[in-house]
Amino acid sequence: MSTLQETNHSYKKLTVDSISKKIVAAQYSVRGAVPLRANEIKEDLKAGKHFPFSNVVSCNIGNPQALQQLPLSFLREVAALVVCPTLLNHPLPFDDEVLARAKAFLKANPTGLGAYTHSQGFSSVRGEVAAFIGARDGHPTDPASIYLTNGASEGVKMALSLVCADSESGVMIPMPQYPLYSASLALTGARAVSYALCEEEGWSTRVEDLEASYCAAVDAGTKVTAIAVINPGNPTGGVLTGQAIADILEWAYAKNLVVLADEVYQENIYVDTKRFVSFKKVLRTLESQDKCLGLQLFSFHSTSKGFLGECGLRGGYMEIINLDPAVIAQVYKLASINLCPNTLGQLAVSLMVNPPQGDSPAAKVYRTERDSILDSLKSRAARSEAMFNSIEGVSCQPVEGALYAFPKLTLPAKLIEAAEAVGQAPDLFYCMAMLDAIGVCVVPGSGFNQVEGTWHFRTTVLPSGEQFEQYLRNVPKFHREFMARFQ
Amino acid sequence: MSTLQETNHSYKKLTVDSISKKIVAAQYSVRGAVPLRANEIKEDLKAGKHFPFSNVVSCNIGNPQALQQLPLSFLREVAALVVCPTLLNHPLPFDDEVLARAKAFLKANPTGLGAYTHSQGFSSVRGEVAAFIGARDGHPTDPASIYLTNGASEGVKMALSLVCADSESGVMIPMPQYPLYSASLALTGARAVSYALCEEEGWSTRVEDLEASYCAAVDAGTKVTAIAVINPGNPTGGVLTGQAIADILEWAYAKNLVVLADEVYQENIYVDTKRFVSFKKVLRTLESQDKCLGLQLFSFHSTSKGFLGECGLRGGYMEIINLDPAVIAQVYKLASINLCPNTLGQLAVSLMVNPPQGDSPAAKVYRTERDSILDSLKSRAARSEAMFNSIEGVSCQPVEGALYAFPKLTLPAKLIEAAEAVGQAPDLFYCMAMLDAIGVCVVPGSGFNQVEGTWHFRTTVLPSGEQFEQYLRNVPKFHREFMARFQ
Predict the structure, then answer these.
(1) Fewer beta carbons below 10 Å: N end or C end of chain A?
(2) Where is each Aminotransferase class I/classII large domain found (chains A, B) (predicted)?
(3) Does residue A393 sit in the same domain as residue A435?
(4) DSSP 8-class letter at A187
(5) Residue A406 lies in a domain
């Protein structure tokens, strides 16, 4: 190649117009404009710049250990020994049950954490997951139907990409939804078919709303293949009853839909009137009544939520139910292209589904730590909900579960005009102002999808201690002062 | 919904014809037919069934710790403390440098391993990666250009999906290739454009072969946007010289291609005549000569290979070079949809790129462990190559680097007919027979793509100790006996 040729040649760089249209189309607000601005402010604060607050409170993402929640001792102690088995030869400040558990894991999995595992994950852990599901639901579970994953997200993405044949395929997702769903569908090149949750009824899922959404999609030429349900709800905080789940399953069955059940918040229920019921349990009950026989179901769980809050470890699993063997072979192939989920995440799943039991000292410590976290989350959920409902122009449905409140904003016309003038959605404009005024980072409802003309934001119930008290004081104060500017 | 309706309804299950066409099209042989059969045999062996061998030797995948390679002490000791920081308050059998490193990591990252990190990974680790690349290549590196990933695979998949605008886009990949590339392109829905490596010249990459492949693809209507190069080579074991890299870069620049450099085997070079030179270093040198200015490059690295062999931890990074800010924003968004790479993998990257230095006790132990692994790999690479070249009908190019040999088989016509009779590619037929006869699990060349009418298989150089000695004796014996059946 001559130098002359080189010099004259103008290399065409990639541009947004020449890269993947699917990636450009995807949106992911949880780490979008408001959190990006929050990161800038954090850097500025470190550099000594002055703001009306001394630190940013990150309520944009359910990330408990970023907000002072501590990891469970049993999990981390066992994990340390499995990471570094030579420690087992030395005196340690750990309970015997910790040592025994680490040794049992290493005996079942002699290559430890350093080797690629089976594409579905350690078989010992899949066995523990199957036993957990079996005990939870009262129905036997096959370890072969379990796929360990890097968090629940990886499983959700695998399932969404699997069930969509092509660009005319569509998956029904709730409105509001967790944006992983819309983003993953965009990346797959398939269509998101939104079904509205009924805000006035505590964000309930009504069959008539499912039917309306389904029919509109079919009319638009979409091949609807699946419905995703998030229970307990993200961002809504709503919890489905067993009857509501049965209604959804029977409706999905009649439409030949696969059901994707995002059940990562199954431990996070804060009201005495509700308890977690899995889609699998309801399905098996219906099947025993000759209903919904063979309905195909995916269920997802994670170590990131519940009371573990081990977001960084990226542990999770997917259970597949009633799939054909030929399709299962495709799921396996897809998992194998990812080689295997990270091994510490797999170990965390083992410890999540198989905690210390009974009256052992380790079990007592475990339950004390667990109850302390869950009691505190329950209190913070109730106080967050009450705080929002105390503000004029804000209403918040019951925070029955999960880690979020999704309050509704009644915004004055002048504010909406001001937002339009700077090219922002009104709820984005509101959230940006909240960040600038009090350092609280939340995500506008537009990032989750919402009924047109309504405005919301999602916040977590995760700030704790004095930070939470400040948050409870500052949010109403900000709201009043900000609204006053647009009367 | 009435029971009658339920009973009469026949639910349409997903079938291979109704799920994602892209997933069905993808192939991934490294965990394909031969390894699946090997897994069955392992289970049968456990159950007491009799085979002509007592255990399966898994040479299908570069998974060092599954074959007795031990993890490096420094990495695992620091990791144990970061996993369970309460250990820092107790007397431990660790060197002071281990304690200091764990404390420094926790100081830089106060939320430890339990929180989601920045979507690109811990900023402290990205800083260490940038310093490592800078020292390696002699050119400054911006931590903002580093994306930590779950192994290198995740980065490769992100880059491949980004550079393909649509289904007419194509990426040039070597033949033979690591099947992650063809599988990921199939999942993206884009085209794989194979360019042949020259086997007779030690699997070299020749510009005339690139040109021929490129022109044929363009003639077929493919918009070629990128070229992937694996150096050191997988499955070939070949190592590129700086001049060869410069030739590839200059050619890619003239064609407006993005270059994806898979450099995960950069520590695995076994011949004194070759050393690792990064694509980045060569690019920066060319740019200093006013050549290839602004050529866009992705480079990938991993904790799974080299001498760490930490496959299960899923640590890795991607460096992006010369990308436009608007495209970088899309890369960031894609990373953020994955939330963050697993944190233990991130810590492993930190310890890979920033090992203990100088004359400290920890550094001496580290170097002793490293050299022992690399010396042994070097010996096994040379002995594997010599063993294959000692067999009539088998030839093997120099195993200069990486973890694999890719010997070529000259197969008799009768064997090819026998394979066709059972519907198998001849090299798959051969590999299945090897597994059944001596328990050695390798992957047929057809899984990596090969020049039509040639047959190969990939094996790792990872068996060790007595297992390796047996392997060296058994493979030639199997070959002779199997060939004798088809004369």
Answers:
(1) C
(2) 102-464
(3) yes
(4) H
(5) yes
DSSP letters for A365-404: HHHHHHHHHHHHHHHHHHHHHHHHHTSTTEE-----BTTE
Strand blocks (E) in A198-322: 223-230, 258-262, 297-302, 316-321
pLDDT beyond 90 at A36: no
Q: For residues B348 and B317, state if they share a domain.
A: yes
Question: Measured between CB atoms, which of B166, B256, B314 is closest to A11?
Answer: B256
Token readout for A432 is 């940006």
Q: What is the mean pLDDT of residues B302-310?
A: 97
Distance CA B384, CA B402 (A): 13
pLDDT average, residue stretch B258-263: 98
CATH number at residue A327: 3.40.640.10
Q: What angle do CA B161, A180, A268 make, to 5 degrees?
A: 150
Q: What angle do CA A17, B146, B226 make, to 5 degrees?
A: 40
Whether the CB-CB separation of A167 and A186 falls below 8 Å is answered with no
DSSP string, B350-377: HHHHS---TT-HHHHHHHHHHHHHHHHH
Rounded to 5°, the CA angle B110-B111-B112 comes to 90
* pLDDT value for A203: 96
Task: Say yes or no for a CB contact (<8 Å) between B312 and A115.
Answer: yes
Query: In terms of domains, do B181 and B271 share one?
Result: yes
- Residue B176, domain member (yes or no): yes
In this complex, how many residue pairs, one in chain A and one in chain B, have their CB atoms less than 8 Å apart?
314
CA distance A131 to A140: 8
B31 closest CB neighbour out of A119, A324, A342: A119
pLDDT of residue A158 exceeding 70, the answer is: yes
In the Cβ-directed half-sphere of A62, how many Cα atoms lie within 13 Å? 25
CB-CB: which of B183, B312, B334 is closest to A340?
B312
- Give how many domains chain A has, as a whole number: 2
Q: Is B395 exposed, middle or buried (0-12, 13-18, 19+ CB in 10 A)?
A: middle
pLDDT at A3 over 50: no
Question: Does the pLDDT at position B140 exceed 50?
Answer: yes
- Its domain, for residue A233, covers 109-353
Q: Domain containing B438 — which CATH number?
A: 3.90.1150.10
pLDDT score, position B32: 78
Cα dihedral B425→B428→B434→B440 (10° resolution): 170
Question: Are B347 and B374 found together in one domain?
Answer: no
Give per-residue pLDDT as tens, A440-454: 999 999 989 999 999
Q: What is the rounded average pLDDT of the residues A238-250?
A: 97
| Residues B416 and B430: beta-carbon distance below 8 Å | no
| Rounded average pLDDT over A32-45 | 91
Average pLDDT along chain A: 95
Put simply, the answer to whether A312 touches B343 (Cβ < 8 Å) is: yes
**Which residue type occupies B415?**
L
Helix, strand, or coil here: A426?
helix
Is residue A215 classed as helix, strand or coil in its secondary structure?
Answer: helix
Kindly report the average pLDDT of chain B as a whole number: 95
pLDDT at A4 > cutoff 50: no
Domain presence at residue A474: yes
pLDDT band with cut points at 50, 70 and 90 for residue A2: very low
Name residue A382's amino acid: A
Closest chain A residue to the Cα of B336, Cα to Cα:
A31
Going by C-alpha positions, the residue among A310, A251, A296 that lies closest to residue A159 is A296
